[in-house]
Amino acid sequence: MTEDVVLAGQRFANRVFAAAGCAGTGRELPAQANLAGLGAVITRSITPEARAGLAAPRIAETPSGLINALGLPGPGIEGFLADELPWLVDHGAAVIVSIAAEQAADYARLAQRLRQVEGVIAVEINLSNPVTESGRLPAAMDAGLAGGIVHAVRRNTAAGTPVFAKLSGDTTDIVSVARACVGAGADGVSLINAVRGMGIDAATGKPALGAWTGGLSGPAIKPIALRAVWEVHAALPDLPIIASGGVRTGTDAAEMMMAGASAVSVGTALLSDPTAGIRVREELAGIAARREGGLQGLLGCAHQEVTA
Ligand SMILES: Cc1cc2nc3c(=O)[nH]c(=O)nc-3n(C[C@H](O)[C@H](O)[C@H](O)COP(=O)(O)O)c2cc1C
Hints:
Blueprint: E1 5-7, E2 10-12, E3 16-18, E4 40-42, E5 59-62, E6 65-68, H1 76-90, E7 95-99, H2 104-115, E8 120-126, H3 143-154, E9 163-166, H4 174-183, E10 188-191, E11 195-198, E12 200-201, E13 206-207, E14 213-217, H5 222-235, E15 241-243, H6 250-259, E16 263-266, H7 268-272, H8 276-290, H9 294-298, H10 301-307
Parallel strand pairs: 3-4, 3-16, 4-7, 7-8, 8-9, 9-10, 10-15, 15-16
Antiparallel strand pairs: 1-2, 5-6, 6-14, 11-14, 12-13
Helix pairs in contact: 2-3, 3-4, 5-6, 6-8
């Protein structure tokens, strides 16, 4: 059975991706991670300038997940294009570049710069970083702000390159934000980023993260992600959705697709098991093969059962 799929006009080899920031630069992962075997690798969010990131500790464990406040460390767009993107492309990865900035004009410049390079199959706009250095809430909390950024990126991106808006599970009304992004030209959405949270170190009585608050990811947020996917798919059934939030197994991926996802991305699970993406892909293929109607029959099927 063929696993390939066309989303927003772009062909992907399969529906299991590496989530933004969770495959590092790619180089850190062992060969068994087989990035070329994933439908896509979504890069860490690339910023206009190089960034050192936030104060340590940047990651802390919690029951059923972890919290992180990395602060988008990285080499900036020029360093990424000179060093990280060529490595990923040479190793056979289908690369979706995640971009992050403070202002719509900076997002536009990032998009414009990416337009001139080979090997970028889609752009993901990170509108939902749970911690910003300015302390401002992520743009995804505000439909108008999110739409303005999407518009700026879309008009600076080549027509054949899909643009996905990455939204936040913290948003009260995620459907309104998704609608604003689609109205501004997004070809799909990625749901969800890590959810805002924090930990306290009982021994010191201090926050567990250097930035105090961070983003909660892993199995703990899967129900939040499922709900977001469910709501957006119900409102916008034709919109491609890349689902992330606690996907560790083929069953998790299948559940996301039943809720309405077109693809999934594996995040936190890759940190402890770099082969998790390939394993999820294989398990999902097994689940689809055993079901009547195959993978196609999974897509959005939870909605049919509710309305039947
Ligand atoms: C260590 C780490 C780094 C991350 N970096 C980014 C990033 O650069 N850009 C982004 O949009 N999301 C980033 N994320 C969020 C993930 O892409 C993903 O959406 C989220 O963690 C939920 O999926 P998960 O539960 O499978 O991890 C990061 C998550 C983690 C744990």
